[in-house]
Amino acid sequence: SRRVTVRDIAAAKERGEKWPMLTAYDAMTASVFDEAGIPVLLVGDSMGNCHLGYESTVPVTMDEITILSAAVVRGTKRALIVADLPFGAFQESPVQALRNATRLVKEAGVGAVKLEGGERSAHQVELLVSSGIPVMAHVGLTPQSVNAYGGYPVQGRGEEAAQQLLRDAKAVQDAGAFSVVLEAVPAELAAEVTRSLHIPTVGIGAGIGCDAQVLVWTDMAGLTSGHVPRFVKQYANLREVLGGAAKDFAEEVVGGSFPAKEHSFR
Ligand code: KIV
Ligand code: NA
């Protein structure tokens, strides 16, 4: 069976079908999501926070994204794999964006890339798409701008900000993006953006009115420690399950009950 393509994504919007997206950063986890039927997996630069131990997505490098994207591609058979262009890998120019996106397609084998920004990134989107690389755009809250925001504030509040968000979404659609992430946007505005576009919107903290929904997998599965944003729903408590397994193993080693006969060669 073949992989999901951007044509399938376009067809889903025409049929009014909603779809889920999760992040993935390694082959094994990606294979679980692929087998669960998640059609699109994002090798997000959120790997900076939840996988590489950075405090934001800002330090993530092309090398890091490329290596983990290749692992996710190898671990999957069916999902469309989308890789983030990290901070500093596309802002300089459309040519820089194309060079780095090409690396993700050729070295890692991803089917599409994602980059942050609406109007400000439209020229990048245009060159990538005209070069044959499908692009998922990302507007609203763009975490690579954390130093400019001074945090992670909800976007699009107030008439002026709402109009800018609509312009941003329209700009990336016109530039040829096949879909657009709306992050941390009031639900009513996200629904309005979704109605006004012919490409699907992928919401995160953007309410029920989007065409698709994405969550960071470690948040969704309850593996993240400490604070998780309000828009996250935890569908499992992996931190408890995994921590419990580690404690049981430790106890049995210290207490001398592991390994038992059946785990030993004779
Ligand atoms: O890096 C990421 O995980 C993302 C999603 C939250 C959209 O960009
Ligand atoms: Na990201």
Draw up the topology in text:
Layout: H1 6-15, E1 19-23, H2 27-35, E2 40-43, H3 47-50, H4 62-74, E3 80-84, H5 94-108, E4 112-116, H6 122-130, E5 135-140, H7 146-149, H8 159-174, E6 179-183, H9 187-196, E7 201-204, E8 212-215, H10 217-220, H11 238-255
Parallel strand pairs: 1-2, 1-8, 2-3, 3-4, 4-5, 5-6, 6-7, 7-8
Helix pairs in contact: 2-4, 4-5, 5-6, 8-9
3-methyl-2-oxobutanoic acid is lined by residues 23, 42, 44-46, 84, 138, 181, 204, 214, 216.
CATH topology of the largest domain: TIM Barrel
What Rg is obtained from the alpha carbons, in whole angstroms? 20 Å
CATH superfamily of the largest domain: Phosphoenolpyruvate-binding domains
SSE series: HEHEHHEHEHEHHEHEEHH
**Roughly how many Å apart are the termini?**
44 Å
Q: Count the helices. How many?
A: 11
Unreliable stretches: none
